[in-house]
Amino acid sequence: MPISNRLLAAVSIAAISLFSGAALAQDKIVIGTEGAYPPFNNLEADGTLTGFDIDIAKALCVEMKAECTFVTNDWDGIIPALQAKKFDAIIASMSITPERLEKVDFSKKYYNTPPAIAVPKDSPIKSVDDLKGKSLGAQGSTTHSNYAEKHFPGSDLKMYPTADEYKLDIANGRIDAVIDDIVVLSEWLKTDAGACCKILTPLPVDVEINGNGAGVAVRKGDTALADKFTAAIAGIRANGKYQEINKKYFDFDVYGQ
């Protein structure tokens, strides 16, 4: 083979190898999640991750034919960790909001549920109007804490690093009410730990704050990965896997309108 042809062949082989390596790298996705937001994501005592988010994430990875691993991260630092490339995507019930869209890109939603207020069963609070002057717990840096700041300015808003901590405080009478996703609150109320409390009322969705459902967050500009997740969401809804996972956790369609 002439030298020029041998050189061309070598360059071609190198190009193919690089392309294959890039394709392989794209098929390995590291997913960040919180691990402290049941029933959506929770880190169990044995170190395993469980919950709706986790099962959906695994199904999306199968649909994309991707090899996925999971990393847990505190909620208030999860977007900076994504930006720092500690993982490639966030699947952690993160609502698609205008504020977050300035920092990250999203897939289309994979579920959409409204916020709600929960109070102790013997609470004198009968409506949201009674929240004025009362202590209201929320997980910090969430759409729910933002919602409370906007819609309940007369309340004494208490911020918590995780949902588990506000649940402990309301169960022990240290706060008067809490705000969170209605599914999170409803599932908690079914447990012994949540026997203290009841749903006061679901709240109207504020699209500016609550956004258009929870999506998969990726680094700003990584629209190709966001589009892959969007296509995979459509895929698992079409093949029935989404409904199978939904039924495991909920007795209603969590996807929403």
Q: Could you characterize the architecture of this molecule?
A:
It is a single chain. The chain is α/β, with parallel strands linked by helices and 257 residues long. The chain is 40% helix and 26% strand. It is built from 10 helices and 13 strands. The protein has helices at 3-26, 52-64, 78-83, 98-101, 143-151, 163-171, 182-189, 207-210, 223-238, 241-249; strands at 28-33, 36-37, 41-43, 49-50, 67-72, 89-95, 104-111, 115-120, 135-139, 156-160, 177-181, 197-202, 214-219. A 5-stranded mixed sheet has the order 5-1-6-13-7. The chain has a 5-stranded mixed sheet with strand order 10-9-11-8-12, sandwiched between helices. Strands 2-3-4 form a 3-stranded antiparallel sheet. Helix 5 (143-151) links the parallel strand 9 and strand 10. The longest helix is centred in the first third of the chain and has 24 residues, at 3-26.
Summarize the helices and strands and which ones pair or pack:
Elements: H1 3-26, E1 28-33, E2 36-37, E3 41-43, E4 49-50, H2 52-64, E5 67-72, H3 78-83, E6 89-95, H4 98-101, E7 104-111, E8 115-120, E9 135-139, H5 143-151, E10 156-160, H6 163-171, E11 177-181, H7 182-189, E12 197-202, H8 207-210, E13 214-219, H9 223-238, H10 241-249
Parallel strand pairs: 1-5, 1-6, 9-10, 9-11
Antiparallel strand pairs: 2-3, 3-4, 6-13, 7-13, 8-11, 8-12
Can you list the strand order of the major beta sheet? 5-1-6-13-7
- Strand % is 25-35%
Helix count? Answer: 10
Indicate the radius of gyration in whole angstroms.
22 Å
H/E topology pattern: HEEEEHEHEHEEEHEHEHEHEHH
* Class derived from helix and strand content: alpha/beta
Distance between the termini: 64 Å
What is the overall silhouette?
globular
Major sheet characteristics: 5 strands, mixed
Helix content: 25-40%
What is the number of E strands?
13
